[in-house]
Amino acid sequence: MIKFSKIKSYIALPMMEHFRWAKTKFKYHKRYSDSYLKLGYMTRLNNVVFGKYNWTSERVTLDNVSLGDFSYVSENSVILEATIGKFCSIGPNVRVAPGKHPTRTFVSTHPALFSNPDYCQKNFLDKDYHNPDRHVTIGNDVWICANAVIADGVNIGDGAIIGANSVVTSDVEPYAIVGGVPARFIRFRFEKDEIEFLMKFKWWDKDIEWIERNKDLFLNIKELTKHNDI
């Protein structure tokens, strides 16, 4: 016969997870009460800075992350050590800065023997000797499709698109479309002069009222570039 204490231990964990999520949700909603923040069920947050109009879907993890205005993260994505710009669309099951293991020089690929992560039961070193700079920078208006992996230390330029199931191991130029394993350049989204216009114009830094007035211009890049007076 199973003792009640053992049964209690089985049901306590989900309840505690739900309590932690509710506590986190309350804390961040209170902190960003005027920012229209929406957090999905079981979203886990640690040291996160939000802008305005952000939202996460279910079971998202953000750790040491800054999220710009209007950017969102879809379900089951795990984003670590990242600065993310405005108007970014991050699809489901995306992984950002998941960590690297050495393949050369270092004798072992085990993290206890090249770094000192918290999750190891015992570490032999006092710091990370393999990948000390994990931080990822993602520009504005970036679309990261489902199941993509962004390796530690990568910089992704404004307007870029990361194809589904891609593994990005090197920097991505502004308005480039990349895909594959490892991700390779496919094409640019727009003509060179149009990209130069967008990079100089920086529409994502305009206020909401400006976007409201000019929203129709967003339907065609050529129409937007015609209006140098806006």
Description of the molecule:
- The chain is of the alpha/beta class.
- The protein is built from four helices and 15 strands.
- The chain folds into two domains: 4-99 and 134-189, UDP N-Acetylglucosamine Acyltransferase, domain 1 (3 Solenoid), CATH 2.160.10.10; 192-230, no CATH class.
- Strands 1, 3, 5, 7, 8, 10, 11 and 13 form an eight-stranded parallel sheet that branches.
- The protein is globular, with a radius of gyration of 21 Å.
Summarize the structure.
The protein has 230 residues and is an alpha/beta fold. It is built from four helices and 15 strands.
Topology:
Blueprint (H helix, E strand, L loop, with lengths): L3 H28 L12 E7 L4 E2 L4 E7 L4 E2 L4 E7 L4 E2 L4 E2 L39 E3 L4 E2 L4 E2 L4 E2 L4 E2 L4 E2 L7 E4 L4 E5 L3 H10 L6 H7 L6 H6 L4
Parallel strand pairs: 1-3, 2-4, 3-5, 4-6, 5-7, 5-8, 6-9, 7-10, 8-11, 9-12, 10-13, 12-14
Antiparallel strand pairs: 14-15
Overall CATH architecture of the largest domain:
3 Solenoid
Radius of gyration: 21 Å
Q: How many strands?
A: 15
Uncertain regions spanning at least 5 consecutive residues: 1-6
What is the general shape? Answer: globular
Number of structurally distinct domains = 2
Q: Biggest β-sheet: count, sense, barrel?
A: 8 strands, parallel
Proportion of residues in helical segments: 10-25%
Determine the CATH topology of the largest domain. Answer: UDP N-Acetylglucosamine Acyltransferase, domain 1
Q: Label the structural class.
A: alpha/beta
Mean pLDDT: 91
Separation of the first and last Cα atoms: 75 Å
Task: Please report the number of helical segments.
Answer: 4
CATH superfamily of the largest domain, called what? Hexapeptide repeat proteins
How much of the polypeptide forms β-strand, as a percent range?
Answer: 15-25%
SSE sequence, one letter per element: HEEEEEEEEEEEEEEEHHH
Regarding CATH, which class of the largest domain? Mainly Beta
